[in-house]
Amino acid sequence: MTAAVRVQAPRDAAYESFESIRATEFARLDAQDVVYLDYTGAALPSESQICAHDQLLRGSLLGNPHSEHAPSRAATVWIEEARDRLLRFLDAYPDEYEVIFTANASAAIKLVAESYGFGPRAGLVIAADNHNSVNGVREYARRAGAPT
C-alpha cells in the first residue's frame, strides 16, 4: 500500500508576502483556477488598481483630451500628470525626454521604427528571438538601406 505525502516547502517572509498579495489583489486567479504567466505581454490589474480606476471614472467627467471643454481639460490634466510622474520615476528630464502613450507595445515599436533614422551607416541589430512586432522593424531598416 502506497500513501501520497505532500511535502510543504519552508515558508519565509517573502513567500508569505507573495501569498498575501495573491490572496488580496489577485484572488480571481484562484477563484477561476488559473495560473497566469504572460506578464510581459499583458499584466493583470490588481484589485486595488481596479477599485482606484473605478473610483476615478465614477467620480470624474473625462473627455477627449483634444477638445476644449471641461471634461477634456480634466482628462488633459490627468494625462500630463501621468507624464510628469513617469519622467520623475525614471529620473528623466522633460527637456530631454518625451513620454508618448500608445495603444500597446506593437504600436510603440512601430512608432519607433517609422521614426528612427535608419540608413547605410545606421543599421539594426536585434536578437534572433523577438516579439513579432520587433521583427517588423527589420523591414523599415531594409527599406532605408540599413544593414540588418
Provide an overview of this structure.
This protein has 148 residues and is mainly alpha-helical. It contains six helices and no strands. The chain has helices at 13-25, 27-31, 47-59, 70-89, 105-115, 132-143. Helix 5 packs parallel to helix 6 (132-143). The radius of gyration is 23 Å and the shape is extended. The N and C termini lie far apart (63 Å). The mean pLDDT is 89.
Identify the overall geometry: extended
Fraction in beta strands: under 5%
What structural category arises from helix and sheet content?
mainly alpha
**Biggest beta sheet summary:** none
**Cα-to-Cα separation, first versus last residue:** 63 Å
Q: H/E order of the elements?
A: HHHHHH
Count of separate DSSP helical elements:
6
Low-confidence stretches: none
Estimate the mean pLDDT confidence. Answer: 89
Structure in a nutshell:
With 148 residues, this protein is an all-alpha fold. The protein has 6 helices and no strands.
Outline the fold blueprint.
Blueprint lengths: L12 H13 L1 H5 L15 H13 L10 H20 L15 H11 L16 H12 L5
Looking at this protein, list some descriptive labels.
extended, single chain, 148 residues, 50% helix, mainly alpha, 6 helices
